[in-house]
């Protein structure tokens, strides 16, 4: 996501009791400088308060020491202090998140950046849609459109197609988010949800929404409710060119069949 050019700071921030307590510590000034640098870094990342090198690599203490120009021990102390005071959260994958980020963010700038991102995504989806339409039976689709819109112009027909596409994408997104939220993957793990939703556009699966949910079901069955585990399953299927649910199920049956044959051979059956 595009980085912001500025963030906002509350002019009464030094009246906050947490800041006042930090100011009584030996390394108060350094800790507060690191705090402001973390806010600025979150603005650069522009991911709802998350701070990371990229979506797969969180910042380590050593990385932050290099970026912020401070000793590692100072960064370590600052992160511990800020976490103890509930000003940051570090999740199980070591991703840093600013608590109550909405109190610090440049709302207008963030929304403008998001609009730009949505436009890029829309252009990408329209390009994909044109490719799909080239491979479809366009004549059959046009018959349906003319039945519902007998006097529709070409532009109106395109708008109808776009609306159907957007409705389908919304349904796909909702299905994944509902499964995530309802099965213990982390209700507030926005960064994880966004990474998983990116598979809808960036994967080779024929029906990505169904396959993503299938991978999540397997993660639940194995009590491995982590994003990395789900993505490992999805990458494994892509690497094996298993791009539909049918191909995945057939592969599973084949593995069971081979395993049974091997057991039978081993025991002389």
From TrEMBL:
<protein>
    <recommendedName>
        <fullName>DnaD domain protein</fullName>
    </recommendedName>
</protein>
<feature type="region of interest" description="Disordered">
    <location>
        <begin position="107"/>
        <end position="170"/>
    </location>
</feature>
<feature type="domain" description="Phage replisome organiser N-terminal">
    <location>
        <begin position="6"/>
        <end position="126"/>
    </location>
</feature>
<dbReference type="InterPro" id="IPR034829">
    <property type="entry name" value="DnaD-like_sf"/>
</dbReference>
<feature type="domain" description="DnaB/C C-terminal">
    <location>
        <begin position="194"/>
        <end position="251"/>
    </location>
</feature>
<dbReference type="Pfam" id="PF09681">
    <property type="entry name" value="Phage_rep_org_N"/>
</dbReference>
<feature type="compositionally biased region" description="Basic residues">
    <location>
        <begin position="115"/>
        <end position="130"/>
    </location>
</feature>
<dbReference type="InterPro" id="IPR010056">
    <property type="entry name" value="Phage_rep_org__N"/>
</dbReference>
<comment type="similarity">
    <text>Belongs to the DnaB/DnaD family.</text>
</comment>
<dbReference type="InterPro" id="IPR053162">
    <property type="entry name" value="DnaD"/>
</dbReference>
<dbReference type="Pfam" id="PF07261">
    <property type="entry name" value="DnaB_2"/>
</dbReference>
<dbReference type="InterPro" id="IPR006343">
    <property type="entry name" value="DnaB/C_C"/>
</dbReference>
